[in-house]
Amino acid sequence: MIESLGKLGDYVGVVPFHKERLKIIEVVSGNKSIEYAKELCKIAYRLEHFAQYHEAISYFNEALYIVKNYYPDNEHEIAYIKCGIGFINNRLEDYDNALIYYKSAIKHIDMKFCKECDDDFISFVYNGIGFAYCYKNHGLSIDFLEKAIKIRKNISDKDKSLTWKLANSYDSLGATYRINKDFKKAINNHNSALFLRQNSYEADIAIARTYVNIAKVYIEMKDDLPLAINYLSEALKIRRQKIGSNNILVAEILELLAIAYEETQKHETALEFSFSAYKVYLIGNSRVDNAFEQLERIYGKANINALSFEDWLKVRMNNSLPY
Question: Fewer CB within 10 Å, N side or C side of the chain?
């Protein structure tokens, strides 16, 4: 499993490794083989770990084209790929598109058509649909996520190595409760996820995700912000170690730290974190405009009156080091 890789070089090197495997498979089996399509999916899932979502979708789409056109009877693989595309759309917060792909996948996992599908796969579909409904239909979201949790509890009881999937479902349910302002249930579910991750073979990178989720709840509650800052600081260390500093998953934490310090009236510290997030987003991300607005807002509160915001930003961009 990719999360089990420890060193930054090894972790980052997983995607190039699979791309090299893809070249070998192309020579041995051809670029229309089922093996080739499966390797495309492996690359797509690994790209997701680095928030390279659009590239991941392009790999999934290529795999889907191969299977639909050359292996149309392979219902299981078609469903698997569509779920992958739905999963990435959830990451992109394109929940309508996510639901389209997940619901399409359901048609392929009817047991009379897809005998290969098992509870593990069905729980993955339920989890994805549940999260995709988080903003659209709170009741349906909870219903699907609780179904996923029920299945994954049974699975993890039989195979402790799959406990991380149950933790993912608790994290998804926690996020749904946070989005709907039920903060107590949100914290309880995220803590359940954290307990499972810390008492299994879960890797640090997944634990960092739960740290971020817990911090988001405290920030939205505007309660116990020092605790939120502690969680975010730990998550920041892990992500920088595992995926490097110039990644939007790192920028996400920097942005949240800026919000937390802004709420505690520590505007100069907030400004530094906000600026660091802005620099990462400048590499190429749709959130750069939001980051700019945050930076400008916090600058206005930081009592740095020597320069206009525009002049200050120019100086910082020319002379700054990563925070």
Answer: N
